[in-house]
């Protein structure tokens, strides 16, 4: 069994990960770290006692329980430092927290190489979302006029989402950058057309009631094509989280995207 520590274990996503790890026969929960939370992690997520209590300090917990993998669902301001701590201790981070900058990703890549320990970053752990991104890349070869709308709960801290940025990056591999729409258009309100990535516009919606959703809209002569994915609850991410935790140790360096484990 693979020994897993969950960082950010008391948050909504963290608790879902704790439950998923406890229910996976190939994974062994050995640590649950969070700045809040107390008591047995199993009982907290509605399962029988598991013998793992919430702890506050990541380094102390790593020293104590010797995990092989750290699944991180904290916040953007915390995840980079946590990943550095894990890598320096030869613990492979599986990062679900979005908001890392390109420079931070490169720093983690260097640290992964220096410590011979892989690090994985997932813009989205939902397998359906990965398929949506792959299908969007394929469609963009034939319909290069495209916009992305991503919709999330109103507690999300970053915009655009990591999924939207990854989708745009994949589309850019097959689509030549160009300006879309009327070249003389003017925004009556700043930001009305959304963010611009190589001429593609990304729109971010934040409202209560949403979990994580995205649609990629393509336009062509007399037709449109919409590819949409909806995560209706946090459990939708758990098969991907467990897949990453079980797959990462067979890889090296920085790995981005769940598709790398879906061959």
TrEMBL record:
Pathway where this protein functions: Amino-acid biosynthesis; L-lysine biosynthesis via DAP pathway; (S)-tetrahydrodipicolinate from L-aspartate: step 4/4
One GO location term (cellular component): cytosol
Single GO MF annotation: NAD binding
Dihydrodipicolinate reductase N-terminal domain boundaries: 2-125
UniProt catalytic activity: (S)-2,3,4,5-tetrahydrodipicolinate + NAD(+) + H2O = (2S,4S)-4-hydroxy-2,3,4,5-tetrahydrodipicolinate + NADH + H(+); (S)-2,3,4,5-tetrahydrodipicolinate + NADP(+) + H2O = (2S,4S)-4-hydroxy-2,3,4,5-tetrahydrodipicolinate + NADPH + H(+)
Domain of life: Bacteria
Location in or out of the cell: Cytoplasm
Chief location category: cytoplasm
GO process terms (BP): diaminopimelate biosynthetic process; lysine biosynthetic process via diaminopimelate
Annotated binding of NAD(+), by residue: 8-13, 34, 96-98, 122-125
Pfam families named among the record's database cross-references: DapB_C, DapB_N
Binding sites annotated in the UniProt record for (S)-2,3,4,5-tetrahydrodipicolinate: 153, 162-163
Family that this chain belongs to: Belongs to the DapB family.
Name of protein: 4-hydroxy-tetrahydrodipicolinate reductase
Taxonomic source organism: Anaerovibrio lipolyticus
Lineage of the organism: Bacteria, Bacillati, Bacillota, Negativicutes, Selenomonadales
Gene: dapB
């Amino acid at each position: 069994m693979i020994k897993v520590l969950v960082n950010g274990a008391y948050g909504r996503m963290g608790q879902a990960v704790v439950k998923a790890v406890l229910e996976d026969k190939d994974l062994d929960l050995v640590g649950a770290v969070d700045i809040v939370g107390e008591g047995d992690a199993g009982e907290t997520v509605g399962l029988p006692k598991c013998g793992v209590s919430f702890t506050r300090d990541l380094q102390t917990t790593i020293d104590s329980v010797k995990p092989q993998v750290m699944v991180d669902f904290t916040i953007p301001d915390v995840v980079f430092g946590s990943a550095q701590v894990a890598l320096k201790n030869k613990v492979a981070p599986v990062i679900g927290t979005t908001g890392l900058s390109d420079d931070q990703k490169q720093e983690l890549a260097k640290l992964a190489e220096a410590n011979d320990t892989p690090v994985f970053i997932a813009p989205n752990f939902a397998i359906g979302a990965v398929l949506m991104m792959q299908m969007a890349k394929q469609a963009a070869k034939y319909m290069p006029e495209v916009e992305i709308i991503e919709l999330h709960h109103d507690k999300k801290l970053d915009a655009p989402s990591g999924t939207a940025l990854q989708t745009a990056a994949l589309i850019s591999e097959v689509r030549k950058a160009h300006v879309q729409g009327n070249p003389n258009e003017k925004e009556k309100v700043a930001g009305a057309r959304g963010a611009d990535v190589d001429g593609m516009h990304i729109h971010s919606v934040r409202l209560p009631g949403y979990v994580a959703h995205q649609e990629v809209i393509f336009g062509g002569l007399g037709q449109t094509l919409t590819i949409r994915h909806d995560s209706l609850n946090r459990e939708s991410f758990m098969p991907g989280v467990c897949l990453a935790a079980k797959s990462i140790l067979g890889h090296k360096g920085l790995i981005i995207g769940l598709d790398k484990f879906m061959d």
